[in-house]
Design goal:
Chain lengths: ~300, ~230
């Protein structure tokens, strides 16, 4: 580069930002808001699928034995189910145990509880089956519920389905919201750049008369858009990065059973992506407004 | 150097600024454009650096057809032409030195060279000491001289001057004319629109008179005419 072009660009960009500080701030903030939502959505989705997976891997089937089965029959059932393919373990929770657990949870004494419940134990015998493979759970559950001694079968598939369903919805809503904010960001940046182009139209005309090419004139405006986008992206990365860090630490210390994603690679990718997305918004925004103007 | 064939210019508002103008100016010539206000001198000049395009007819500069010229070639045309604008057209937020330097910056001259050539040029037009002033801090004549400096700093093959002495006292005006005369002697073609009778009569150069958008008179070693 012959004369100091970078310095020229920086100077021009600085000038124009000083001229319209509020519009610049508004542009930066909308970029930031849209990217903060994007960032948190990505992390939320990553966590949701992580939770869904860990639920799936812990899948258990609860099979309730019919009321008239004897203890021997229950034991036979246990070994019968144990023999099925894909079964990792089968444990028996007798009705007495179930009642005791229930009583413990309620904090009362056992003898009182039975009389309170009308003299009979309402709990059935239960078999807790662990599958080796999450995919097998559904078929296993069907096979077990087909056994004559089994009354009902319950397993977590429903919850996982619901969670996945929810993440699917969230994904679409997230796309929608992020999309709307991105459009708003691009529009604001383009208004920003357009206003600066407009306020400098006389200068631009003079520059052209003295022989400046469109490219030469365009650069400061393009850099201005990129800077606004990058600032928004940078702020968003900061907010998302610190926010996510804080939230996951909080969850880890309070809701210890919830698995959270703390993946450094993903973290960096998302934050870097936010910066790039901000720059892209800036480039599109200024590109849109320069496209029309300079061809006159 | 410059050739116009059957050129007419009608502005969008309907003003007929030029009517069927034919003109040929050779390399190295010094030409005065005279004529009453509103005759079409500035319009004619604007065709040369493609600020305006003719409604009809052809304009050729240095063998290039400006009517068929592509938009992206225009900057290169303008870099080979220096223009002293009737209304100066200085960049308001740039200092005197930055304004003059700008003509060199757009063609990518190094910063060191820009600085050296700019300060030389400002000295030449008598603006030494005003380098860091902004245009609105200058008198009309001083602004005009900034414009002159910017127009001639990159040694254009063609120099177009639209009333370059309009705001100058006679002495400074003659200083500028000496400058233009010297530049012309070095081979630069000069076309100058002016109302300065004394200058035209004294210089004894080719005079083209425009009236109502037509070439009314074209004589070698002419005078200003319109004598009272
Ligand atoms: N941009 C424009 N739009 C419409 N009409 C214009 C425009 N520029 C000039 N004109 C008209 O064209 C005619 C010629 O104007 P021009 O500026 O060429 O005159 P001129 O000879 O340079 O006058 P002066 O000596 O006062 O500078 C005038 O009638 C003017 O009103
Ligand atoms: Mg004029």
């Amino acid at each position: 580069m012959t004369f100091n072009f970078p310095r020229y660009i920086l100077r021009e960009t600085g000038h124009s930002m000083k001229r319209n500080p509020w519009l610049s701030i508004a542009s930066v903030l909308t970029v930031m808001v849209s990217l903060v939502i994007l960032g948190f959505s990505i992390f939320f989705l990553a966590n949701a699928s992580n939770v869904a997976q860990s639920f799936e891997s812990q899948l258990e089937i609860a099979a309730f034995v019919k009321d008239d089965a004897t203890a021997v029959q229950v034991q036979t059932l246990q070994s019968q189910i144990q023999g099925m393919t894909g079964v990792a373990s089968v444990t028996i929770v007798t009705k007495q145990q179930a009642l005791a657990d229930f009583g413990k949870n309620m904090g009362g004494s056992q003898s009182n509880l039975v009389t309170d419940l009308g003299g009979t134990n309402p709990f059935p015998d239960k078999l807790t089956i662990k599958a080796t493979n999450p995919q097998d759970v559904e078929n296993l559950a069907a096979a077990i519920s087909a056994l004559p001694e089994i009354d009902t079968v319950r397993y977590g598939q429903g919850y996982v389905d619901k969670l996945l369903q929810f993440t699917k919805w969230l994904r679409w809503i997230g796309f929608g919201v992020v999309g709307a904010f991105s459009v708003a960001s691009v529009v604001l940046i383009s208004i920003n750049v357009k206003m600066n182009v407009f306020s400098k139209r006389r200068e631009i005309q003079i520059m052209k008369l003295v022989g400046a090419s469109n490219g030469f004139i365009r650069w400061p405006f393009l850099i201005e858009g990129l800077t606004l986008g990058l600032l928004g992206g940078g702020l968003a990365a900061l907010v998302v990065g610190m926010g996510y860090n804080w939230i996951t630490m909080y969850i880890q210390s309070t809701l210890t059973f919830l698995p959270v994603v703390r993946n450094v690679v993903l973290f960096r990718q998302v934050l870097g992506g936010l910066l790039l997305a901000g720059m892209a918004m800036g480039a599109v925004g200024s590109g849109v407004s320069l496209q029309k103007f300079l061809h006159s | 150097m410059i050739q116009l064939r059957n050129v007419s210019k009608i502005y969008p508002n309907g003003a007929r600024a030029l009517v069927d103008v034919n003109l040929k100016i050779d390399k190295g010539e010094f030409v005065f454009l005279v004529g009453p206000s509103g005759a079409g001198k500035s319009t004619l000049i604007k065709l040369f650096y493609r600020d305006e395009t003719p409604t009809r007819g052809q304009v050729q500069i240095n063998g290039k057809n400006l009517v068929r010229m592509k938009e992206r070639e225009v900057p290169y045309l303008r870099r080979s032409i220096g223009v002293i604008f009737q209304d100066f057209k200085l960049l308001p937020n740039k200092t005197v030195q930055e304004n003059v330097a700008f003509a060199l910056e757009v063609i990518g001259v190094s910063r060191k060279e820009v600085r050296a050539r700019t300060s030389n040029m400002l000295e030449l037009v008598g603006l030494a000491g005003k380098e860091n002033a902004f245009p609105n801090e200058l008198s009309g004549g001083e602004q005009q001289r900034v414009c002159v400096a910017r127009a001639i700093i990159n040694n254009p093959a063609l120099l177009i001057a639209d009333e370059p002495t309009g705001n100058l006292d006679p002495e400074t005006a003659w200083g500028i004319m000496d400058l233009l005369f010297n530049i012309n002697k070095r081979g630069t073609t000069i076309v100058m629109a002016t109302h300065a009778r004394a200058i035209v009569n004294k210089m004894q150069k080719r005079v083209i008179a425009i009236e109502n958008g037509r070439v009314a008179r074209d004589e070698e070693m002419g005078g200003y005419g319109y004598d009272v």
